[in-house]
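Hi W.,

Here's what went into the run:
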Amino acid sequence: MAKVTPTGVLGVFAHLDTASDAIRRLRRDGHRLTVYSPTPRHELEEALQAPESAVRIFTLMGAFTGSAAGAALAVWASLDWPLIVGGKEIVSLPAFSIIIFEVTILLGALSTVAGLFLTGRLPRIGPAEALYHPSFSAGRFGVFAHVGTDRFEAVSEIMTESGSEEVLVDQS
Amino acid sequence: MASEIRSVFHPEVKNYEQVNRDAMRILSKPGRGYLALLGLSIALVGVAAIGFFYEVYYGIGYAGITNPSGWGTFITTFVFWVGIGHAGTLISAILFLFRAPWRQSIYRLAEAMTVFAVLTAALFPIIHIGRPWFFYWLLPLPSQRGLWPNFRSPLLWDVFAVTTYLTVSSVFFYIGLIPDIAAARDATKVPWRKKVYSVLALGWRGTDREWKNFTRAYLFLAALATPLVLSVHSVVSWDFAVSIVPGWHTTIFAPYFVAGAILSGVAMVVTIAVPIRKVFRLEAYLTDLHFDRMAKLLLLTSVIVGFAYAMEYFMAWYSGELFERDVFWDRVFGQYWWAGWSMISFNALIPQLLWIPKVRQNLNAFFIISIFVNIGMWYERFVIIVPSLAHSYEPWKFLNYHMSFTEAGILLGSFGWFFMWMLLFLRFLPSLSIAEIKEILPPPLKRHSEHTLAESERERVVEELPTGYKEFERR
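Here's what came out:
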């Protein structure tokens, strides 16, 4: 834990475009930001220019693991109890393809969720990394700049100039 | 200025905050009617519990199933409920991938319906096996005797398909709920609700990091759920089609069952959504346009199902197969003629009324048609399962099946069980997707120069296209 006490400035915005303006200006100054929005918006993503999410790697690996696990389970269990039914092969791949498919989906979905939890840092336990305001889940956009106390005034000014309704300062 | 631009799909919704208010309104204190319905549902579950007790304590003989009809009401009802679930995944996953902008307000209800319908369906194989405490024999668990289940059996495929479906649709449902539970957490003033929502929301705050990974994860879950939903009812259909029973042994079963599943599921969504819209006054969200689209979906699947019915008869005739012909003749002129004709008229004929725009846009008419389809789809499964078994190869084996009181009680109770969960869901979790409805609302913008207004106009036009993604256009 690098930062024990998060300090910074939170700007509450009523409008999407003003929030994106603030993000652009603050990013130009090199500040680390946490942005809140009630719904995902591409405007914010674009302003933040965040790299692609890593969840897809989890999905792919989970799905491959699932295919392998499904095949291994069906083949190994059939060989372990080699009972011929209806004159079919002990290892009947056409029949096993269904088991392989279902386990692929199952593990793919579960590892996608694991990926979401790991990359999105959910569930969030412990102290908050940035100030929050309940209006962010309703209709407000929030931009939190992680800055030291010495930069508070400059950052607050950027927030107000961009059109923030309310600027909150966390100096804990 | 900002308030003048509205979403085409929700012209009554002014802004983001209104969505939260309206979604939270449903979570308020329940009225007397709600409690009465909940009480009735729980009472029906009690009826099923009595039936189940009889069956377990005195033996499976209390169910009407016997030779040659080893499958009866339980399997019929199992297939029925699995099918109901399919429309939920269709609306939440497939329409998500197609970027259909009319899914946002309806999908949460449909998805809840999926989870609870599959939850209901999963009970039935366990009830049907008669000795439910040996259920774990179906699962590939290591045992002292070194026994493994038969992976070449469609019944085992079914175990994998249905458990995977239940798991994935529950996960999909919950992941989609997280941002909305967080919104409920922030809005609620009831202390115990706040506590529960805080735990369930996993500390969600809508940060850029959360959204970025959430939207990707949601996309992949939808992409995984889409082939899954098509596979599940295909596998259920192979429980029948892989056998050699006349009336079951056909290759059209998989698409036929999937279309039937979506037909019954859409009908159930309508059956649920029409009263909810009325009671909770959600006209701004479940608009006439939404019902119109669903009517078209129902009509499409009804036509596919009707085509499958016709093809079954064509194949029976064209094959020249005596037993096949006999079974299909028996379906409409034999002992079960009433079930056969109910199935054909309720599923394939009555929904054709939806071609008429006046009927389609009349919610009462649509609601009644949806009830017909619900009943008709139960009959469809009954007609596929029972007459085929009761009337298969050897005439000396013909024996009609009669539903016993135990089975009828458990069938009734399954509706109680399903509606109990639906009713509890309505009051405890946001049944409108708060975050996703906001996605299709025009965002609040400060700058409304002529330039942006012109752009918004273009945006409006683009929004009408089924893409739903206007952001790329703007660049």
